Amino acid sequence: MDKPYGWWLPINISTHGKPIDDLINSLHWFMLALFVGWGIYFVYCLIKFRARPGHKADSTEKHFRLPTYIEIGIAIFETILLVFVSYPIWSSVKNDMPSDSDSLRVRVVAEQFAWNIHYPGDDGIFGRTDPELIAPEDNNPIGLDREGDPNAKDDIISINNFHFPVNKPVRVDLSSKDVIHSFGIPVMRVKQDAIPGTVIPVWFEANQTGSFDIMCAQLCGVGHTRMRGEITVQSDEEFKAWLAEERTYLGLEEG
Amino acid sequence: MSVVIPYVSKPHPVTGVTNAKLGIWLFLASEVMLFGALFSSLIVLRVGSTDWPVGSTILNVPLAFVNTIILITSSLTMVMAWASLKLNNLGKYKMYMGLTILLSFAFLVVKYFEYSAKIHHGLSPATSNFLGIYFTMTGLHGLHIIGGIVVNAYLWIPGAKMWHSDPERFTGRVEVAGLYWHFVDLVWIFLFPTLYLL
Amino acid sequence: MGDSAEEIRHHIKGYFLVYLALMVLTGVTVGVSYFHLAIHWAVLVAFIVAAVKGGLVAAIFMHLNNEKKIIYWILILTAVLAVGFIIPVLMDVEISAYTQRHIPQ
Amino acid sequence: MSSAHGEIHAHGDGHAHEEGFWRKYIFSTDHKVIGIQYGLAAMAFLLLGFGLMLLMRWQIAFPGIQIPLIGKALTQDGVLSPELYNQFGAMHGTIMVFLGVVPMAVGAFGNYMLPLQIGAQDMAFPKLNMASFWVNFVGGLIMLGSFLMPGGAPQSGWTSYPPLANIAPPSQTAWLIGMVFLITSSLLGSVNFIVTAIQLRAPGLSFFRLPFFVWTQLVTAFLLLLAFPPLEAAGVLQLMDRVAGTSFFMPSGLVVSGEILSNAGGGNPLLWQHLFWFLAHPEVYVLILPAMGIVGEIIVTNTRKPMYGYNTAVYAIIFLGFMSFIVWAHHMFMTGMGTAISSFFQATTMIISIPSVIILTIFLLTLWGASIRYTVPMLFALAFLPMFAIGGLTGLPLGLTASDIYLHDTYYVIGHFHYVVSPGTLLALMGGFYHWFPKITGKMFNQTLGKLHFWGTFIGMNGIFGPMLLVGMAGVSRRLYDASIYQAAKSVQPLNVVMTYSSWFLAAAQILFLVNLFISLRKPKTPAAENPWESTTLEWTAPTPPLPHQNFPVPPHVYRGPYEYNTTSREFAPQALQEV
Ligand code: HEA
Ligand code: HEA
Ligand code: CUA
Ligand SMILES: [Cu+2]
Q: Is D256 in a helix, a strand, or coil?
């Protein structure tokens, strides 16, 4: 396939992204048509009706129908886009949360200036977290209660490295430790602000492997520019292998 | 030769109001948006909070009650000041206007005691969002009171000279000052229950 | 507003009556607050009373009971916008079903 | 006219002797002097805002490379630091919007032209008018002062989102105080404008005889009057958060650089965004409406025929103004908004695009059957149409949640609104400048330099903002100090270089403007400046320049609609003209 990034939309590796791209593209064709249409008329007027000897402005009261029809047309087209295109996409993005059974569920906790990815481990249950316990130095940037909470024992925390399997829905519970960030993955057609004090669910499913950028899309301070994460979409086996690596790296016993 | 601006004392034939009257109402409209936004914020914060106290458990209702009485009374004296001018009675005007100013000071004094009591008990805006919004809104309202005092004080003595040159315009000014003052009173009428009683 | 001395005197009676009403109503709000009604009732009562009081001040003291059209239009516009602000905000901030708020991260 | 002239000047001079320098030029209550004061201040701020951006653009195009010449003055290694980048970005936005374009469009053009166009002697409240300028001036000084504060200028973006803004360096407090001043100034100003436009119209000047520009100013004034207070409230709340330790915008348990913040919590960051955008969306129409007004005046004058569907245009403007109050949350689609509310705001956003389309269509149809004179102001006005069209059209994908998911906070947004504010509004303002310069100064400017300025500006701006849309499409986030670490940005880096060179080109074009300004001012007064475009509206029947205070030797009376070109036996029939 062609190179992933260019001067227009980059490749889309998400299952829900296609309609979004179609909307953006068709909308731009529509805009172009309007602009060129009007533009032609515009330029025509500029030439035809330029002031010149013997040419006099015609001030008689006129009424043109066509523009009114065009305006109505624009209104109708916008309504269609809104009701039949934008609304369905948005509601699926917002409501079709995959069930925990057939999806990978992770927490993403944004902070100045990194993305903390929190995997529940084999038990599939997120351990309790508590701001008091935050200790970046011993791999605990989100205050996971490893001692107190049994569910936390097998939890895996990865910083800026977000691995997940291809062809499997991923549900992210997005939150922030400090200020507002925005979890943006261009190739995944995903963007969601991380609002401190709230947890916002986001879902997506990749249909292609590879590794791509996570960009922070909301000004979050001096490090906003380098708040770069990386998603690595891989086969289920590779993903499992990676989890195991992480587990040993973190010195956790098998779940 | 200098500017002649129409409709400063006589109302505009079509709109039926003087410039000042239209102006003050526009200003009050913006004030409505200002306090409207603050009340909205209060609602948002309150609905969003899990531990919003009942005002009366923290704030001093009797003092606020007294202040309500004071403010309402000052509204009455204010409108009476205007009415006295309408009845061509400058003396009465001065009396009522004087009373209004007096009452406004009384209001501020009571507020002062209220605030200092809070601070004394170590209750500051930082203690909770309830106290935060309480100090913010009553504080802003207090500033409006002070503004009103300044205007009224001016109209009370120095500004009153105009009564002899252009009584109509002066009466208009007093009416405008009155509108502002009643609005400040009106805001308090809503602040009192929302902050102190609920 | 009427301008003849007669009407003014008549108005003045009105002012004092309104004043009394305001006093009484203030008493009512405070009185009610001691019954410790269920919150929504308390809010309702408090708001109604406040609205009546505010209405009186606006209508009589501020002469809104007979004011020029243009003033009414300005105030209507303002009221519409104020309401048009708070309703969507409340819907978004609190009733938004897609964010679970106040969960410590 | 000219016969009355000598006697008029006698008035003018006689008057000049009455007041001293200070009353006449500094603390003047004359709307014309105040207008010029606003204009000069705004121009300075526009150039400053541009200057800041030139530095930023260098860093964007050549990340980590020393800024030529002045680099060393900013940082010791001569490379723009990320801190400075954020400060300049935030201040560029703040200055351009609140201290540049609005004071220019409303403070300068509105103040100067509104009373003249309605045949009034001055604003309804001249002293208030002076006050509003000086309050605005103080606000501007505070904003400038913030650059010198410890920790540097405000750096949380012009949107100042908490919690970031709450934990920002002290200068953020200055930003808030400065905003309170600017807001107060706008409130005073807008009250004044509305009262003036409603009460002080010359006899015979009914609402539907008002020049289009006056209508846009009237609607703008209402937007400022009713949209600004919520931001004032928000400003006060954030001020409390910062100085009094409240947490209106801060939930509990925030951990900033390892420290748990001690604030009580329970606040809501989104509350700020709602309050902010409730102002800031109407604000953007404050940026465009006066521009549309100016463009309308210029186009109609230079087409030598009445405006097509004047009444429709007026209704469209009013509708636009009203709608602009209920679309604000389209800036917040990605904050976790549900389907119900987002649908509401998508709908209103789509609806609001219609009146804009109508207005543009009206301008375009006015060209039909016209006799277009390509004067300098007309060039700017004509260019405004396609530029605003691009800016407006690119608003549509942003207005639909589905496409906004991808485009939100990318350079596409930057491209969108710069097309409306820069090649849109700024071109219109420059056009207005050339249109009214003769009446204001009694002198003519240099046509050739004017045309060069136009082409330079037009090409330069498109060279900047056209590519910007593509950069956004590639997915590059805004407010990035150094995007080069992202794959998406690498592919569009050449475009960034083009944009930066274009911005220099644009800067060069502005030098032509300034040169033209100065040489024109040093020319002698000419009668040619009386009514060079043969316009019909009232300001052109006033003496040149209009009399200090009082404007007209005798209060004008209006007998006809605003744009009677070739409708009578005359080529053009001024509004104040009785017999034909
Ligand atoms: C003057 C300023 C201005 C104007 C007029 C507009 C006009 C519009 N804006 Fe824009 N907008 C901004 C300034 C402006 N905007 C700013 C500053 C921001 C960013 C703030 C920030 O985040 O920092 C922004 C951001 C912004 C967003 C948020 C994007 C995001 O953050 O994700 C959205 C979303 O809906 C939006 C939508 C619109 C729409 C639908 C219009 C509509 O009103 C447009 C209607 C106009 C048209 C539809 C054009 C019609 C013309 C024709 C069809 C004729 C065409 C042809 C010829 C004449 C040749 N704008
Ligand atoms: C009115 C608003 C306005 C205007 C006019 C401009 C004008 C320009 N802007 Fe700006 N811009 C903003 C408002 C504006 N901007 C805002 C709100 C932001 C977001 C900030 C944030 O992220 O918080 C932004 C952000 C922004 C960015 C993104 C930064 C980032 O995200 O990291 C960039 C990047 O190139 C940019 C560039 C420019 C350029 C090159 C111009 C040029 O067009 C400048 C042209 C200027 C001139 C040509 C001077 C003209 C004036 C005169 C010569 C006097 C004229 C005289 C009369 C009219 C009488 N702007
Ligand atoms: Cu995190 Cu920007
Ligand atoms: Cu907007």
A: strand
Would you say the C-alpha torsion D171, D173, D176, D182 has a positive or negative sign? negative
Instruction: Tell me the Cα Rg of chain D.
Output: 24
Please give the backbone phi and psi of residue D419, each rounded to the nearest 5 degrees, phi first: -60, -35
Quote the minimal CA–CA distance from C105 to chain A in Å. 6
The whole-angstrom distance between A175's CA and the closest CA on chain D is 11
Ranges under pLDDT 70 in chain D: 1-18, 580
Closest CA to B40 of A148, D271, C86, D165: C86
Residue nearest to atom 1 of ligand 3 (CA): A181
Residue D258 phi, psi dihedral angles, 5° rounding:
80, -15
**3-state class (DSSP) for residue D571:** coil
* Beta strand A228-234 pairing with D259-260: unpaired
Cβ neighbours of residue A181 closer than 8 Å, sequence gap 6 or more: A110, A111, A193, A194, A216, A218, A220, A227
- Which distant-in-sequence residues (6+ apart) come within 8 Å of D100 by Cβ? D42, D45, D46, D49
CB contact under 8 A, B198 and C16: no
* Beta-bridge partner residues of D256: D259
Q: How close A153 gets to chain D, by Cα (Å)?
A: 23
The closest residue, in CA terms, to atom 27 on ligand 2 is D414
Task: Name the residue of D365, D418, D420, D469 whose CB sits within 8 Å of the most ligand 1 atoms, as the mutation to test its pocket.
Answer: D420
Q: For residue A114, how many C-alpha atoms fall within 13 Å in the half-sphere facing its CB?
A: 14
DSSP state of D80: P
Any idea which residue has 């292609």 for tokens? A208
Question: Which of C16, C30, C89 is the best mutation test for B, with the most CBs of B within 10 A?
Answer: C30
CB C59 within 8 A of CB B176: no
Is there a contact between A219 and D156 (Cβ–Cβ < 8 Å)? yes
Q: What does DSSP say about strands A228-234 and A161-165: parallel, antiparallel, or unpaired? A: parallel
User: What are the two backbone dihedrals, phi and then psi, of residue D283, each rounded to the nearest 5 degrees?
Assistant: -55, -40
Cis amide bond preceding D545, omega within 30: yes
The complex's ipTM?
0.95
d(CA C102, CA D285): 35
Write out pLDDT tens, residues A59-99.
Answer: 888 888 898 899 999 999 999 999 999 999 999 998 888 98
Give CA–CA dist D113/D553, Å, rounded. 17
What band does A187 get if pLDDT is binned at 50, 70 and 90?
A: very high
Return d(Cα A110, Cα A175) in angstroms, integer. Answer: 6
Q: How far is the CA of C88 from the centre of ligand 1 (A)?
A: 21
Cβ neighbours, 10 Å, residue D319: 16
User: Rounded mean pLDDT of chain A?
Assistant: 91
Asked whether the beta carbons of residue D254 and residue A78 sit closer than 8 angstroms, the reply is no
Q: Which residues of D touch B34 (CB under 8 A)?
A: 229-230, 232-233
Residue C91 with chain D: CB contacts under 8 Å: 340-341
Q: How many CB atoms lie within 10 A of CB D21?
A: 7
Residue D313's contacts (CB-CB under 8 Å, 6 or more residues apart) are D212, D296, D307, D358, D359, D362
Segment D339-343 long-range contacts (CB within 8 Å, at least 24 positions apart): D339/A87, D339/A90, D339/A91, D339/A94, D339/A95, D339/C98, D340/C91, D341/C88, D341/C91, D341/C92, D341/C96, D342/A90, D342/D401, D343/A82, D343/A87
b/e per residue D541-570 (b: at least 16 CB within 10 A): bbbbbbbbbbbbbeebebbbbbbbbbbeee
Q: What is the pTM of this model?
A: 0.95
Tell me the H-state helices in D200-309.
Answer: 212-239, 269-303
Query: Residue A64 has what pLDDT?
Result: 87
Q: Are D250 and D267 in contact (CB under 8 A)?
A: yes
